[in-house]
Write a structure and sequence with these properties.
The complex is a heterodimer of chains A (689) and B (667).
Chain A (H helix, E strand, L loop, with lengths): L12 E5 L17 E5 L8 E2 L9 E2 L5 E10 L8 E9 L9 E5 L1 E4 L5 E3 L3 E3 L12 E5 L2 E7 L3 E6 L13 E4 L7 E10 L2 E11 L26 E10 L4 E8 L7 E2 L1 E8 L4 E7 L4 E5 L8 E2 L1 E2 L14 E3 L11 E3 L1 E2 L3 E3 L1 E5 L5 E3 L3 E2 L1 E2 L11 E5 L8 E5 L5 E4 L14 E2 L1 E2 L2 E2 L21 E5 L8 E5 L5 E4 L14 E2 L1 E2 L2 E2 L9 E5 L2 E7 L5 E8 L2 E7 L25 E5 L8 E5 L5 E3 L4 E3 H5 L7 E4 L14 E5 L12 E5 L9 E5 L5 E4 L4 E4 L3
Parallel strand pairs in A: 5-11, 9-32, 24-30, 43-48
Antiparallel strand pairs in A: 1-2, 3-57, 4-32, 5-6, 5-27, 6-7, 7-10, 8-9, 11-12, 12-13, 13-14, 15-16, 16-17, 17-18, 17-19, 20-21, 21-22, 22-23, 25-26, 26-28, 28-31, 29-30, 33-34, 34-35, 35-36, 37-38, 39-40, 40-41, 41-42, 43-44, 45-46, 46-47, 47-48, 49-50, 50-53, 51-52, 53-54, 54-58, 55-56, 56-57
Chain B lengths: L2 H26 L24 E2 L9 E2 L7 E7 L11 E6 L6 E10 L5 E8 L13 E4 L5 E7 L2 E6 L13 E4 L7 E10 L2 E11 L26 E10 L4 E2 L4 E2 L6 E2 L1 E7 L4 E6 L4 E4 L5 E2 L14 E7 L5 E6 L3 E5 L4 E5 L1 E2 L11 E5 L8 E5 L5 E4 L14 E2 L1 E2 L2 E2 L21 E5 L8 E5 L6 E8 L2 E9 L1 E2 L2 E2 L9 E5 L2 E7 L5 E8 L2 E7 L1 E2 L3 E2 L18 E5 L8 E5 L5 E3 L4 E3 L10 E4 L14 E3 L14 E5 L5 E5 L5 E5 L6 E2 L3
Parallel strand pairs in B: 6-25
Antiparallel strand pairs in B: 1-52, 2-25, 3-4, 4-5, 5-6, 7-8, 8-9, 9-10, 11-12, 12-13, 13-14, 13-15, 13-16, 17-18, 18-19, 19-20, 21-22, 22-23, 23-24, 26-27, 27-28, 28-29, 30-31, 32-33, 33-34, 34-35, 36-37, 38-39, 39-40, 40-41, 42-43, 44-45, 45-48, 46-47, 48-49, 49-53, 50-51, 51-52
Classes of the chains: A mainly beta (689), B mainly beta (667).
Chain lengths: 689, 667
């Protein structure tokens, strides 16, 4: 069992969900609509991620404490209905720190009541001739053997899998030449196409990605006309034959069609095959899904659409489309996408559009057993009674720019959280993204880094959502529904003196009512903590930079990493941590943040001394709530020790879950999408050296 | 129940219903911002379509937003004493930029409409004044019984000039120039607060922080750093008061600061307002703050109790004796009348005016409301979208004051925001360039547009209760990435042969073709070609001195030669050079200034578009200049058919096609 000290209560909670009044958007083979979800109450465990309360611990499949889980292979081993999966966890904590960075194997375990795929908890595969934290391989079954394949412009590397040792060995089984690949390789697919032969399809960079000559300090990546000064990569498709006997190339490399720009920013290609059609699905970092028929009969690639005629989007940021192999029913028309966030299955709907492009059902999340509450990467939680039923829920933003709601069917002392729901705006899932003007370049446009604060901003007694995101601006979505049936209204920009309130990026604002005014704290253009007072729903006025008790301003950057994009990212939260009647401040930071000053600050000064811990700081308020003056920050320890949760910012919130007889406890959203719960009695502090 | 009682109940219910509707109407505000006459709209006889002239307003005496005519913006410098019998004083209005009519004018009060809109007439041009652009006054105002004076503060020195109503001049000499202590070097606003005996009290809006643009040797560098933070400085200001002895015009002591030194960012003007004599300060972004005599800062409100916003960008303000005030800038002038709940804003109008849609107008002639008559829908530099309903016929159209259209319930205000190519001080502009077309094929008009940021977007229309209501802004994307081109251009869209084609200026300032495929996703059809080979660019060779000098082209697809294939019309700034930087129109013909509308004949087909060399349109065989920065042509099926061309100063010129037959070309 993953959680050794989990107590199972003597009763089961049955929640009959009717899809919250919405029709089931995912037509499942056995039908949708009314469904029965079983929740099992589990006690909150301090120093652990909140576990999934769904029966069998079902949760989105994601590698522990990694913020990216990339599907690198599908093999029919455990069952004939659906394959087992090889998944690469990248970014995040290594196994020695409790993470699943590296290659993992997940066994197919069945489907849930909605027909969604369920997998076992991952098992690590540690031996391979490539860096196992790299997803630049594809793993598949050829005959009775399992192989990992890697392709470069000039080489084809193949490693055979040893089932007994769960290893690919330390050397390539085959390493053969590739000739005639015209450009650098972005991605590839390898599919057995006949007796002893396979198709190698390669997406080549016809236009390579070139970053602007910038050290990310002062100069923007965009010029005075607002254009990116680098190059956005473009890709085209090529193919050749590979003889399976020795994995040698057989024949020329030929272009598929004549479009040299099949897709911008290519990340993946996957062959698909139906009864009477075949082609390639390509995707990119932005999330586009396009189709190129094998015969290259279209002059431009077409967009995939869903059964409602809407453009089908790759819900996984950054990457992979993996077609489920043909073993199942002779067809390979369904696919799974993966990357940052959950993994998603797209089922072929059995028909095609006027261009011959296959139509797919909307995506279904892929699940695993014994999982944790999962909300996508870089999660930023709020613990509030969102639906007005008296129990504290979790509302959170993530790196994709989406908003999720985890309903609490239990109590605040013993919460029982349901599977997360994606929150909607005007009937569509809310998603905010950077767009073209992303600080790190247009290829990062798929990210939103939504940092929400749930608060009654307009004073009507209903919770609203105030947020910042990738762009460092601030907006709010009013609740235009009711306390028990909240409905998000169109986002409105927050201004100061008629200009958009602007600060550094990816900051969660701290907001609280102080007397008859509402205070909002952000990180300003100097990367300093800065207070504003609300003057209307869409306006604030300047309340000045925050100060320490010695009068110094409080900034968050260090004095050696000049890269500006290391600024910001602070996750601010007002909470009366020590119950003295004054609002204190919690700040979640990144690994190299240095609060309160560049020369000496947390957590960076301790990190340089070898102490890598939770990147959550506590600023005790020694002034008043209306005129705060903060003590020097301290860093949280867990049971007297440092607890690393991941280098990206940790997002803390003081919460009233669990035993709060001594004051609020701590919930921390981490880069891998989990919510770490800490009972305050387990928390002590490390001081600034 | 007896029939009588049933009837009485029905009447009662109807009254309740009507009252409820009125209440709802009152709270949501009227949709139409124009005149509020109770009388039925009167369509004036005569034609509004005169080839070669701007469209005239032809409702209710030709009521239209007040404009001097031919200017990019207006600056209301102040007021004269209220003439006997008038509700409001005459205004001193400066016309800024544009083709003609620059200078200072007296706008004379005519009347107030039943709806509360003040109506002014363009009076005489002020003949003489002792200032130039660097010594211009911040305010002109009456000083008790002494008359009307102009006050100019610059670099520690206050100058005063007296207005002579007889010859409409301020003379050639200052009445007095005196040193002032206690003020910053620059004051962007000034107000005459009051006179008591011989003591005059002035309020000045001084800059405590002066705006600064990043100074780079390399003009290709963005004004923003890696984090998207502006590398320059935004100005900040606060209020001061100064007492002046009127017999000598000398200060009675130093100026005194009355509010926090960071009272407001980007300040632009100050005036008295409200019954309690508070001061209102305005800034470049539309914000307004009230400051009491005791220095207490509060937020002025509108009649619904919401934050009062200045509807003029880059505002100047001046108070009027009823406690209200007038604002001006780029776009319409607005009168803010005091009322019980807050200020009520009403457009300042004129009679016999031309149709006015704000600066840099980009019109479309479409049947917006589905009544079979062609209307006008236009974007402007402030980022607004205006609807001019046609109350006449397609042969003799009748237009009045434009209505501000809404998107998702909010007035359309597409603006650059903090991240603007010219820096945050330009955040009040949007340069909305719309094309009205059925983008998604549902039979309802949508608005496809680009703006200050060069990004392509769409607002989808939905018909509700006979009206087209626009939804939220959405991106048009290729490969799920925003398409970014040069700024301030209008994309052309056409539904041809079962496809929806979008033609836009790309990052290279080249004409680029896209095809809508699903939703807002387009596929790239590549650069448009000249004779099936060369690309078509719009910039001139010397333009790289500043990359933001590119763009501004207004594209329009129309079958101009009526051969069944769409052709392209391009409204080009005078600095543009189509089809190549070395040799192109209109720049190769400079300094000759003509009608900067270029016609690209499609020599291919609707599926395989390729163009011939551009030709510049002549009006009746001659060059005809209506502006140089923003020229926006659109096909106009009104009258005998032709073009409607929006220009810099907000006017829309009609040209009969018969008068545009002749063209000029470089090839």
């Amino acid at each position: 069992m993953k959680h050794t000290s989990t107590l199972i209560f003597s009763f089961l909670l049955f929640a009959l969900l009717w899809g919250c009044g919405e029709p089931d958007p995912t037509p499942t083979p056995d039908g949708g609509g009314r469904e029965q979800v079983v929740l099992i109450a589990r006690e909150l465990e301090s120093n652990q991620p909140i576990a999934s309360s769904v029966e069998r611990g079902l949760a989105p499949l994601a590698m522990d404490f990694c913020y990216t889980s990339v599907l690198v292979g599908c093999v029919y081993e455990s069952a004939s209905a659906y394959p087992d999966l090889f998944v690469c966890g990248s970014g995040g904590l290594s196994s020695s720190s409790g993470g699943r960075r590296g290659l993992n194997y997940c066994q197919f375990k069945g489907v849930d009541s909605r027909g969604r795929l369920i997998y076992s908890h991952p098992k690590a595969i540690t031996v391979a001739p490539w860096d196992v934290t790299s997803a630049a391989v594809k793993i598949m079954k050829i005959g009775s053997e399992i192989y990992a394949i890697q392709t470069t412009k000039t080489k084809l590397n193949v490693a055979r899998y040893n089932r007994e040792t769960m290893s690919f060995g330390s050397e390539w089984t085959y390493s053969t030449k590739l000739v005639g690949v015209p450009y650098a390789v972005s991605t590839f697919d390898f599919v057995v196409s006949g007796e002893g032969v396979a198709d190698l399809t390669i997406m080549c960079y016809t236009v390579a990605s070139v970053s602007p000559d910038s050290d990310y300090t002062e100069d923007s990546l965009y010029d005075s006309a607002g254009f990116y000064m680098g190059t956005i990569p473009e890709g085209a498709l090529y193919r050749t034959k590979i003889l399976l006997d020795g994995f040698v190339q057989d024949g020329e490399v030929k272009q598929i069609g004549n479009d040299n720009s099949v897709i911008l920013g290519p990340t993946t290609v996957a062959q698909v095959k139906g009864n009477d059609w075949s082609g390639y699905i390509v995707s990119n970092k932005a999330g586009a899904l396009k189709y190129v028929p094998s015969a290259a009969s279209l002059d431009v690639a077409d967009y995939l659409v869903d059964t409602s005629g809407n453009q089908l989007i790759n819900r996984s940021n950054v990457k992979r489309v993996s077609v489920i192999n043909a073993d199942r029913d002779g067809l390979s028309d369904d696919f799974i996408t993966s990357g940052e966030g959950a993994m998603w299955l797209y089922r072929y709907a059995g028909r095609r559009n006027a261009y011959g492009t296959p139509i797919y059902h909307p995506a279904e999340v892929v699940l695993m057993q014994d999982g944790d509450l999962f909300s996508g990467s870089l999660t930023v939680p709020n613990v509030v009674d969102w639906d007005g039923d008296g129990a504290l829920d979790v509302v959170t933003g993530n790196s994709e720019g989406r908003l999720m709601f985890f309903k609490n069917y239990g109590t605040n002392l013993h919460p029982v959280f349901a599977e997360g729901e994606y929150m909607k705006l005007c009937g569509e899932e809310f998603c905010i993204r950077a767009g073209y003007y992303e600080l790190q370049g247009p290829m990062e446009c798929c990210w939103g880094y939504l940092c929400p604060t749930v608060f009654d901003w307009n004073g009507d007694g209903l919770y609203d959502i105030v947020f910042s995101y990738n762009e460092g601006k601030y907006m709010y979505m009013p609740n235009v529904g009711t306390a028990t049936n909240p409905v998000l209204g169109t986002p409105k920009t927050i201004y100061m003196d008629g200009m958009e309130l602007y600060g550094v990026w990816r900051v969660r604002p701290a907001i609280e009512r102080i007397g008859d005014r509402v205070a909002m704290m952000i990180m300003d253009g100097d990367n300093a903590l800065h207070l504003y007072w609300q003057t209307s729903d869409t306006s604030v006025t300047d309340g000045g930079k925050m100060e320490l008790v010695d009068g110094k301003f409080i900034t968050g950057h260090n004095n050696y990493d000049d890269s500006n994009v290391q600024h910001g990212r602070g996750k601010l939260n007002f909470v009366d941590w020590d119950s003295d009647g004054k609002l204190d401040l919690l700040v979640g930071t990144i690994k190299r943040s240095s609060f309160p000053s560049p020369e000496r600050g947390l957590p960076d000064t301790r990190r340089k001394q070898g102490y890598t811990g939770m990147q959550v700081l506590y600023f005790h308020n020694e002034g008043t709530s209306a005129e705060p003056r903060y003590a020097y920050p301290v860093q949280f320890l867990v049971n007297g020790k440092d607890k690393a949760l991941g280098a990206h910012s940790n997002a803390p919130v003081g919460c009233m879950l669990g035993d709060v007889s001594d004051g609020p406890n701590l919930l921390v959203g981490v880069e891998s999408g989990r919510f770490m719960f800490f009972d305050r009695k387990d928390l002590t502090y490390a001081y600034l050296p | 129940m007896e029939m009588k009682k049933i009837f009485e109940n029905m009447v009662y219910i109807t009254h309740i219903l009507a009252l409820s509707l009125l209440l709802v109407w009152g709270c949501t505000g009227p949709e139409v911002e124009g005149p509020k006459d109770d009388e039925e709209l009167k369509v004036e006889p005569g034609t509004t379509l005169v080839s070669g002239e701007p469209l005239c307003a032809s409702l209710n005496g030709g009521l239209a937003p007040f404009a001097l005519g031919g200017n990019l913006s207006h600056k209301v410098l102040g007021v004269d004493v209220v003439a006997e019998g008038n509700l409001l004083p005459d205004l001193f209005v400066e016309g800024v930029g544009g083709l003609d009519n620059s200078g200072l004018y007296k706008a004379t009060f005519v009347k107030m409409t039943a709806g509360g809109n003040p109506v002014y007439a363009v009076g005489g041009k002020v003949t003489k004044y002792p200032w130039n652009s660097s010594s211009a006054p911040q305010k002109i105002a009456p000083v008790g019984e002494l008359g009307t004076y102009a006050f100019a503060y610059h670099n520690g020195s206050l100058s005063v000039a007296k207005y002579n109503v007889a010859d409409n001049s301020f003379g050639t000499q200052w009445v007095a120039t005196t040193s002032v202590e206690g003020l910053p070097a620059t004051a962007v606003g000034l107000e005459v607060v009051g006179v008591e005996g011989s003591t005059l009290t002035l309020a000045l809006l001084g800059l405590t922080v002066v705006a600064e643009t990043p100074s780079d040797d390399d003009v290709s560098l963005s004004y923003y750093n890696t984090l998207g933070t502006y590398r320059g400085r935004i100005s900040v200001g606060t209020l001061y008061t100064l007492s002046i002895e009127t017999s000598s015009w000398t200060p009675l002591g130093e100026a005194t600061v009355v509010a926090d030194e960071k009272l407001i960012i980007a300040p632009s003007a100050v005036c008295c307002a409200g019954s309690e004599g508070a001061l209102v300060v305005a800034n470049e972004f539309g914000a307004m703050k009230a400051v009491s005599a005791q220095g207490v800062v509060s937020q002025p409100l509108d009649e619904c109790g919401c934050e009062l916003k200045n509807r003029s960008t880059v505002a100047a303000v001046c108070s009027v004796p009823d406690g209200g005030f007038v604002t001006s800038g780029e776009g319409s002038m607005w009168y803010y009348a005091p009322s019980e709940g807050g200020f009520v804003s009403r457009e300042v109008l004129m009679e016999g005016g031309v149709l006015y849609a704000g600066s840099m107008v980009v019109p479309n002639v479409v049947d917006w409301d589905g009544d079979g008559r062609y209307d006008i829908v236009a974007g402007n530099s402030a980022g607004n979208l205006l609807f001019f309903k046609n109350y006449g016929t397609n042969t003799s159209p009748a237009f009045g004051v434009g209505e501000y259209l809404r998107s998702a319930g909010e007035v359309v205000e597409v603006r650059a925001g903090y991240y603007s190519l010219g820096g945050p001080m330009e955040s009040g502009w949007g340069y909305l360039c719309p094309t009205v077309v059925d983008w998604n094929g549902d039979g309802v008009q949508d608005v496809v547009y680009s703006f200050n940021e060069g990004i392509l977007e769409v607002m989808l229309g939905e018909r509700r209760g006979g009206e087209v209501q626009l939804g939220v802004r959405q991106k048009i994307m290729r490969d799920y990435m925003e398409i970014c081109g040069v700024w301030r251009t209008r994309p052309a869209v056409a539904n041809v042969d079962g496809q929806t084609i979008l033609v836009a200026m790309d990052q290279e300032d080249e004409i680029h073709v896209y095809e809508r495929r699903v939703g807002n996703a387009v596929v790239d059809r590549g650069e448009a070609t000249l004779y099936y080979s060369d690309h078509i660019t719009g910039y001139r060779q010397q333009v790289d001195s500043s990359l933001s000098e590119r763009g501004r082209e207004k594209l329009h697809l129309v079958d101009w030669d009526e051969d069944g294939d769409v052709d392209l019309l391009v409204g080009a700034p005078i600095t543009a050079s189509f089809p190549s930087p070395v040799k192109g129109l209109p720049y190769s013909r400079f300094p000759t200034k003509g009608l900067n509308v270029l016609y690209f004949e499609n020599i291919g087909s609707n599926v395989n578009i390729s163009f011939a060399h551009p030709k510049q349109l002549l009006f009746k065989g001659k060059d005809f200049n209506i502006g140089t920065a923003s020229i926006s042509p659109t096909f106009c099926p009104l009258g005998e058919g032709g073009l409607l061309v929006g220009c810099d100063c907000g006017q829309m010129y009609y040209f009969s096609k018969n008068d545009l037959v002749r063209t000029i070309s470089l090839w």
